[in-house]
């Protein structure tokens, strides 16, 4: 709803007042899918505490329903399922089936008041005013920050992190684990394997009410110094209020509030991942009604005790000046030189470094992850005899919580934009423009994981250059991750002969990289990352920060000609956009402790962009139609005054009907060439037993684990295709080899580009006059008129497709392009570097529009 009042106070003084109210109501509901899909929780999953539901034992493990971390009703939904790893059966990466966080509701009532005054005084055109915004965001929490949104739980299984219990197929692990009994709807363990990678669950789902206010006064003076020069001077002051939760239900994790004294009173069991109390080594009890302070170490309530309601100190005053000029150097109107510079502040959305990101934060909502439970009945360790190893805790207790953090000092994102252009009228009706355009973004939002481990320095890395993790090597009895004696005295023997002892600085990273990777039944230890994190007792710390930067530089040129029946134009830009993070949750962020290592071309960077447009008024066809449909025109007739022939065409002229049909057609079109956007190549470990997912052994938890290495002498032409993969192989997989062990890989972010695109769109248009004030418009349009196939190799909107993910290395060089019989077949059936989709095919469209 908008109310607007415009007042002309004097001929040179104008005032405009605007009040607006906007709102959006979004409601998402759970609906069963077609084909018998059912999201409701099966009754047979039951309660593992109820021994009456157990149907006996297999070995030491009771056959019981699925366990849980929180007995919260599960939203009445079946748990979600993530299949991950390097499964070529599922596109090379896996897929997710999740009943998710619905039902969900969101409203955002926003009030906006603005008053603008314009005054002309001499050579000055003055504008000044103010804008005030009161914004609200009321919603049920979803998947945000540490929260998964899943009160029903989320199971993750992998064909990689299963160790000796893995079948080599993630879906088989889901069914197997070491066997599955689905009688009565119960998921049951038949042998006690730990092929389940993890189980995650939120304790609750709540509704939050976030608010903020903005006031922005501004002033601008357009000063016409002379007929040839105009100077623009302006200032906008952004007075920003912080987001805050109306009922003070926001909690923040702050590093300065973390107590090392409390942290020294616990440890994380390296086998079960549970929190153990020191010195007793007993699981820390988990009571939602009275949480042990060691579990929520560092959590601060926003509002009381001197903590700002918005969790961060305010930064209200944000001045944003603007300056520009327009100059006609010769005063003849044929040349214009323009330049400008300005600063623009952005208050930010509700999912950035503010209380909007603290929805579902601890302690109101707890998010726990249990790594490698010994089967479905052992989730939460409620069932007895879940301790496969003698050191593993076997009773219910707390696991490290994942938390969300925002900075305690506000830094609003802002951009600086500048430009310089020269426009010139040329002979023969041409007008051309050359411009340089630049911008710089500062304090952009990025999500980092503060509890990541430090990577090992290159000088201390036990792996030689180009030497990857080797997990399953023909002829080798023990792989790199197998020869771990115990978690208290880990010793790794690499294939190269190097020994990594417990005193080696690389030992911790080795244990983290190798978690769940052991194929040695004598040493199936799964030393979890939480054992070694910098903030002991906590899991992942998702920190929303305004710490990323960006820059854009572009050369833009246009040329346009309008004369006679043809209007045509050409626009070309050569530009480069660079940033540390193109999105708050950049999927390729491998090292949270070194943001600058993520600097690369932006995800949306397009180096070259060409547009050719034209509108051509076709010659009149009425004469040809008259001749072809009726016959030769009578050139001898000159009886123009005959009363009975007043509506007939003149001598040699087509009839009005032929002119109505055949004249006034227009042909127009746009031809576009654009270079492909960049994407990253991700190391997803090798199904051939070469490489690991967390190759650096740092347990980042956000984005990808690592990149591959670049091949030293890649084969120049490895573009092979096979009937078992979708579409042709578009780029060369021999460019990449398995990354050196305990590194992030040297290929880096956004190393490759999607294929370029050349597209032709055309339309044919005609207006048919009916009578004065009404007409019919006919339009025939063709998009991609030549039906040119324009592949797209990577499209993040389609989810995890495996097209940018390496799931196999082979051959003597551990290449992603290894091909049977030269080495391990990494190409047959693989989605890597194959098209994920194509841009639109030829589309024809006919339209009629009646205007009256």
Describe this structure in words.
By secondary structure, the chain is mainly beta. The protein has three domains: 179 residues, no CATH class; 173 residues, no CATH class; 246 residues, no CATH class. The chain is built from five helices and 44 strands. The strands form nine sheets. It has a 27-stranded mixed β-sheet that branches. A three-stranded antiparallel β-sheet has the order 17-18-19, with no helix packed on it. α4 crosses α5.
What keyword list fits this structure?
mainly beta, 852 residues, 36% strand, 3 domains, three-stranded antiparallel β-sheet, globular, 27-stranded mixed β-sheet, 44 strands, 5 helices
Summarize the structure.
By secondary structure, the protein is mainly beta. 4% of the residues lie in helices and 36% in strands.
């Amino acid at each position: 709803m908008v109310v607007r009042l415009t007042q002309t106070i004097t001929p040179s003084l104008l005032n405009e007042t605007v009040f607006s109210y906007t709102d959006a109501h979004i409601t998402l509901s759970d609906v069963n899918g077609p084909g018998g899909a059912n999201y409701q929780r099966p009754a047979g999953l039951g309660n593992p505490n109820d021994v009456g539901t157990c149907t006996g034992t297999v070995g030491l493990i009771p056959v019981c329903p699925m366990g849980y971390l929180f007995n919260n009703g599960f939203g009445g939904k079946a748990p979600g399922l993530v299949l991950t790893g390097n499964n070529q059966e599922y596109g090379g990466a896996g897929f997710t089936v999740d009943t998710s966080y619905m039902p969900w509701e969101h409203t955002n009532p926003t009030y906006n008041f603005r008053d603008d005054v314009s005054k002309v005084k001499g050579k000055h055109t003055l504008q000044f005013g103010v804008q005030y915004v009161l914004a609200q965001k009321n919603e049920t929490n979803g998947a945000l920050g540490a929260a998964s949104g899943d009160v029903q739980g989320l199971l993750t299984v992998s064909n990689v992190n299963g160790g000796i219990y893995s079948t080599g197929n993630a879906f088989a692990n889901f069914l197997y684990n070491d066997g599955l009994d689905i009688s009565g709807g119960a998921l049951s363990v038949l042998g006690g394997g730990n092929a389940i990678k993890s189980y995650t669950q939120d304790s609750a789902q709540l509704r939050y009410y976030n608010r903020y206010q903005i006031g922005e006064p501004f002033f601008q003076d357009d000063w016409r110094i002379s007929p040839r020069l105009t100077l623009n001077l302006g200032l906008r002051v952004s007075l920003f209020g912080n987001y805050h939760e109306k009922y003070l239900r926001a909690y923040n994790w702050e590093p300065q509030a973390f107590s090392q004294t409390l942290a020294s009173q616990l440890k994380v069991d390296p086998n079960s991942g549970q929190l153990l109390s020191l010195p007793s080594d007993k699981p820390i009890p988990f009571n939602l009604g009275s949480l042990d302070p060691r579990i929520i170490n560092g959590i601060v309530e926003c509002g009381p005790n001197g903590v700002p309601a918005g969790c961060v100190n305010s930064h209200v005053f944000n001045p944003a000046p603007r300056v520009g000029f327009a100059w006609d150097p010769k005063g003849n109107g044929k040349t214009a030189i323009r330049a400008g510079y300005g600063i623009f502040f952005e208050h930010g959305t509700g999912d950035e470094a503010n209380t909007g990101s603290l929805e579902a934060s601890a302690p109101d909502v707890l998010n726990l992850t249990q790594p490698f439970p010994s089967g479905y009945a052992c989730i939460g360790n409620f069932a007895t005899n879940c301790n496969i190893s003698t050191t593993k805790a076997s009773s219910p207790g707390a696991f490290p919580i994942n938390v969300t953090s925002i900075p305690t000092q506000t830094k609003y994102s802002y951009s600086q934009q500048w430009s310089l252009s020269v426009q010139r009228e040329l002979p023969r009706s041409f007008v051309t423009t050359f411009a340089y355009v630049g911008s710089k973004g500062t304090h952009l939002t990025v999500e980092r994981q503060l509890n990541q481990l430090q990577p090992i320095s290159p000088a201390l890395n036990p792996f030689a250059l180009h030497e990857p993790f080797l997990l399953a090597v023909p002829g080798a009895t023990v792989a790199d991750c197998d020869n771990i004696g115990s978690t208290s005295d880990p010793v790794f023997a690499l294939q190269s002969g190097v020994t990594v002892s417990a005193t080696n600085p690389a030992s911790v990273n080795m244990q983290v990289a190798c978690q769940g990777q052991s194929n040695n039944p004598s040493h199936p230890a799964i030393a979890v990352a939480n054992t070694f994190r910098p903030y002991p007792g906590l899991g992942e710390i998702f920190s929303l920060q305004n710490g990323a930067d960006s820059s854009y530089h572009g050369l833009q040129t246009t040329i346009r000609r309008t004369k006679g029946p043809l209007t045509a134009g050409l626009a070309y830009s050569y530009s480069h956009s660079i940033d540390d993070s193109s999105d708050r949750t950049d999927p390729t962020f491998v090292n949270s402790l070194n943001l600058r290592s993520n600097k690369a071309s932006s995800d949306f960077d397009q180096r070259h962009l060409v547009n050719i447009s034209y509108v051509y008024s076709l010659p009149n066809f009425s004469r040809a139609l008259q001749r072809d449909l009726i016959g030769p025109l009578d050139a001898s007739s000159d009886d123009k005054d005959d009363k009975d022939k007043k509506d007939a065409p003149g001598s040699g002229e087509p009839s009005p009907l032929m002119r109505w049909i055949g004249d006034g057609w227009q042909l127009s079109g746009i031809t576009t060439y654009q270079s492909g956007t960049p994407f990253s190549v991700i190391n997803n470990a090798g199904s051939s037993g070469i490489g690991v997912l967390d190759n650096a052994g740092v347990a980042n938890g956000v984005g990808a684990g690592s990149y591959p290495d670049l091949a030293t002498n890649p084969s120049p032409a490895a573009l092979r295709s096979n009937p078992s993969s979708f579409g042709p192989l578009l780029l060369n997989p021999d460019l990449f080899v398995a990354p050196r062990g305990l590194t992030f890989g040297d290929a880096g972010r956004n190393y490759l580009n999607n294929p370029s695109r050349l597209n032709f769109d055309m339309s044919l248009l005609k207006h048919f006059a009916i009578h004065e004030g009404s007409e019919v418009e006919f339009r025939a349009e063709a998009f991609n008129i030549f039906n040119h196939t324009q592949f797209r190799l990577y499209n993040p909107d389609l989810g995890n497709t495996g097209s940018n993910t390496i799931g196999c290395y082979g051959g003597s060089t551990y290449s992603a392009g290894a091909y049977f019989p030269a080495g391990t077949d990494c190409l047959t059936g693989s989605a890597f570097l194959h098209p994920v989709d194509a841009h639109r095919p030829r589309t024809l469209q006919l339209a009629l529009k009646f205007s009256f």
